[in-house]
Every structure is written in C-alpha cells, then in structure tokens.
Amino acid sequence: MPARLLLMLALLLAAFAMAARPAAAEQVLVVDGDSVERTKDPFVPSRADIDLGPEPRGRPAPAWTSGRGASAVSGAIRRAARAGSISRSSAAAYRRTYRRAISTLRRLKGARRRELGYVVGSLERIALARRLSPTRMRPLFLQLRRNGGYWGSRPFPAAGDQVTFRGSELLFQYFPGRGLQIHPLSNFKKANLLHGACGRGGGTAKPVCGARPPGPRRGAPCRPGRLRKLLDEMSALGVKRGRFVAWEYLFEFGGGSPPWMSGMAQATGIVALGRASQLLDRPDYRTTAGQALGAFETRAPIGVRTRGPLGGIHYLQYSFAPRLYIFNAFFQSLIGLRDYGRLADDGRAISLFDSAEPEARREVAHSDVGDWSRYSFRGRESTQEYHELLREVLQGLGRRIGEPYCAAATRYRGYQTDPPRIMYRGPGEARKGRLTRLRFSLSKLSVVEVTVVKGKRLAMRKLVTLRRGRRAVLWRPRSRGDFRVRIAAKELRTGRSLRGRHSASIAVR
User: Fold this and answer.
1) Are 140 and 77 spatial neighbours (Cβ–Cβ below 8 Å)?
2) Which tens digit of pLDDT belongs to each residue from 442-468?
3) pLDDT for 318-372, tens place per residue?
4) Angle at the Cα of 337 from the Cα atoms of 380 and 388, rounded to 5 degrees
5) Cβ count near 278 (within 10 Å)
6) What span, in angstroms and rounded, lies between the C-alpha atoms of 45 and 373?
7) String of b and e for 40-61 (b: at least 16 CB within 10 Å)?
8) 3-state SS of the chain: helix, strand, coil percent to 5?
9) What fold characterizes domain 422-508?
10) Domain segments of the chain: what residues?
C-alpha cells in the first residue's frame, strides 16, 4: 500500500477514535482542608460556556481600605438580628467570619492581600451603601469565609480557575484582582449538565435547524444527589431583589458596582430548577423558579428588562448596562424562559418569552455584518469564540421556533467554513506608464495577494488586508504586451486555511 494512502488511513482512524471518546471533563480545584487537588469533573462547565463576555469599559477594580466599612458591616448585622430577619446564631457566625477575614488580611502581603482585600472591600462598600440586606448576607459572608480560608496559604490559582470545597457542590471562579467569586451562571450550567446525565438531556430528538440538539456529556454518570445538593445550596443563596429572587454577582465589572445580576444567568437558573423539580420530585424548586421570573418583569438596574434598540422588550446581560444589547445573552435568556414555560406549563414564563421574541426576531438581522457577526447591537464584531457561540444559540432558537433563526445560524456557519470568493472585475486593457486600478470583488475579510506576470516574469506583487466589497489595487505597467493578473484571498478570522483564487488577462498598449 502506498505510504500516502497508509498515512491517510491512520489519520482517519485517529479521527474516528477521537470522535468516539466521551466529551472531555473540565478541570476544577478541590479544596479539602489544607490540600488543594486539581481534578477533572464531567459536570463542570467549560470556560467558554460561562464566560461573562468582554468586560465593558469602566473603572478599575477598587482596592480594600479600612475605616468606616467595619462599622457599617457590624451595624447591618445588628439591625437584621434585632428585626428578627436573621437568627442570633447566624449573626454571631457572620461577625466571626468577618473578624477572621480581617485578621488574615492584616498578616498577608502582596497579591494575596489584594485578592482577599477586594472581597472584604466589596462587602464593606455594600454595607456602606446600606444594601447589606439579610438575604444578601448569606452569599456575601459565604464568599468571605471561602476567600478568608483560601488566601492564607492555598496555592495561587490561574485566571479563570474554578474552585470547589469538599462537602459542597458550589463552584467559585477566580477573577484576578477580585478573588474567588460565586459565579451563578457556572453553577446553573453545572446543574443542567448533572440533569442531562440522568437521561433527560434531549439528545435523541431528530435533527432540526441543521444539527441534533445537544445531549449530556457522554460517559457522565447520573448523580441525582449532587444535583440536589447543588440546587439546595443555590436556592439558599437567592437574594430578595425588589419583588423577586435573584442570584447576584458580587464584584465590580466594567463599571457596574456589586451587587448586579445577569439575565442569561437568571434564565439558566430558572430552567435548571424547573428540570430538577421534575427529575427529583421537588416542587419547591419550581416555586423558587417562579419567584425568579420577576427579574424579567422589572426594569434595570433592579431587574434585567429594558427597551430594546428596535423598540421592543430586551433582556439584559448586565443589569447595570441598560444600553448594551448583547445578542447571544438575550437569545439565551429567551431559550431559558421558553423551555421553563413549556416544561412547567407556566403561562407567565411563556408570556415573558412571547413579549420579547419579536424584538429578538428584528435584532437578528442587525447581528450580521455580511461576512461575520456582531457581538452586540451596533457594537464590535464578534471574536471567533463569540461568533460560534452566537451561531449555536441561534441554532437553539431555530430548533424551537424556526425562522429567522435557522437561516441566520446556517449563514453564520457558512461564514466559518466557506472560502472567500474573489473575482477580478477589470480592466482588460491598460496603458504603459499610467496608473491602473485592478478592480475585484471580495466576499469576506481576507489577506489578498495580487500578482501580475508577463510570461514567467513577475511584474508586480502586492499583499493587502481588505474587508468584503468592491476593492482595487494600483499598478503602473512598465512595458507593453499581454499580462496575467492573479488574485488570491485567505480569510482571517477562523484560523482555517480557507482560500479563494481568480485570474484574468490584461493587455498593455
């Protein structure tokens, strides 16, 4: 058998073997007493799945400063205990957690001091703003306790590392300069992965909108106990925010001061609770999910409802940014509302979906720049990762309700896989010594090489980066005769070797 054929066969067998493997588990740092072990867990979501998005421009993360913050924290605990909003034992535990964190902080130096100091400072600033409510104390003091115990001597994590503590299912994520933070989206994505492993992930449905619906990670065992533990912990961390329950982010992000919330994380939590309610026969989870729907009825910055750029209802990724319309986050929120409404037969959730879907339908066209997608309305173009995420979300909406989402998903897939189309547009003749515009059309952002040859002699070569549309390069012929114009394009965004070519003759008189 020829060597080339053997090589091709080996590559095919390797590709088949990779396709047959279970989906790779993600890494997580497990803290157990004084030890920290990096392990793999099939239920930990990938970093791409829980990315909050490019951070909007804003103030840098503030550092901790001692002072009036301690009195504000103490006063908030005292008032809540006197009102009976928290028990005396909880009040004592909160005070103890705070004192221990301050004691640890005072003996730390450098980066460890900055990380724990930020978490302490966030708590104190919330207290100074008189926003340290009884239900908000639970997540804030839990976060403070975990950070106070971690930064004293545990190994320094890498940016984006997810961390869990033995005996708990909660995931924390390390945000450099902001310590270990409770990440609601990560925890609810984990809940959905745990649910999917128990055989109700929907992966056996017929292909619709160009692909089969995603199922659970292959090979992941059903762990109903872990799912129950995680959602019990997350339910306890829900905060009364206005008239609804929310899962908040407790760190400064892009100019948004804590606490703030995300419509995408909220909707993911609602559907995770609804699914687990059925699987585990826990009607209280559905009650909590119903209490969380109010976020989509309440205007920002308390809730995530706002007037969309095209006049309809839009649900926000960041409650503090009412004019930042992020496509993938809005569409994912709609998927969560629709799925929960269907599985729980909840007319309120279905109404929230129906009221905002017309705005999403109109926004789809504005996410398309002709050869790629935008990240947000009238915003910058997506990175490769966000383009793929938007395509997947549009495909998910398309599977549920059809057009225009299926067409957009198919089109965006083509932007990733179709080679650039380039065609010479003229002229067919030129004059010796005169500048000539060699015109061509280009279908997508590419590096374009234009060469002109006469026989085997190179007369001109130019390499330029150009966007889609009608383009041209200048050439001044130095001699008469028949020349050949060759143009080639290599697209820039996907990292694949996608190329287009065209050539034509030009006569110089």
Assistant:
1) no
2) 999 999 999 999 998 999 999 999 999
3) 999 999 999 999 999 999 999 999 999 999 999 999 999 999 999 999 999 999 9
4) 35
5) 15
6) 25
7) ebbbbbebebbebbeebeeeeb
8) 45, 20, 35
9) Immunoglobulin-like (2.60.40)
10) 422-508
